[in-house]
Amino acid sequence: MTIGVDFDGTIVEDRYPEIGEERPFATDTLKMLIQAHHKLILWTVREGKHLEEAVNWCRERGVEFYAINSDYPEETMQNNDHFSRKIKADVWIDDRNLGGLPDWGTIYRMITRHKSWHDLMIEEVQSATLTPYEELHPKKKPWWRF
Question: DSSP character for 130?
């Protein structure tokens, strides 16, 4: 899966042009996604020196992106006559998502289980509301309903 990842406000707290504190478990989660053979693309408004700082910050923490602000590493404005900053990704991780940014544990579960945030929340609510009988016998009817 190709995953577009924002930097400011997503991997780190938004302090642009400075680099904010890491959001809890962000780089650990990104490394696990890379290890699971997902292609991560850093997709950020940062350019020039500020982009280089962000890339180096991630690299120092063991996060190497497949590409940066492009669909593949070799793509540049010079070798792409239809260059667009819009990349082709299956999933986007961005603090500007409608509904906000879930915690990184939830993001990991969403990607690895192929579930939406909504589906994960429904599963959590349902599992929290089952009675012990329903947990042990989900398809069995209680005796009084025969």
Answer: -
In the numeric block, the tokens 């900053």 are attached to 85
Distances (CA, A) of 132 to 15, 123, 127, 145: 47, 16, 10, 18
Please tell me what DSSP assigns to residue 141.
P
* pLDDT tens track for 135-145: 565 665 555 55
Cα–Cα distance, 44 to 16 (Å, whole number) = 11
Which is more confident, 45 or 76?
45
Interatomic CA distance for residues 132 and 114, integer angstroms: 28
d(CA 142, CA 146): 8
Per-residue pLDDT reduced to its tens digit, 97-116: 878 899 999 999 999 999 98
- Calpha distance 59→11 (Å, rounded): 13
pLDDT at 97: 84
CA 87 and chain centroid, separation? 15
Single-letter code of the amino acid located at 24: P
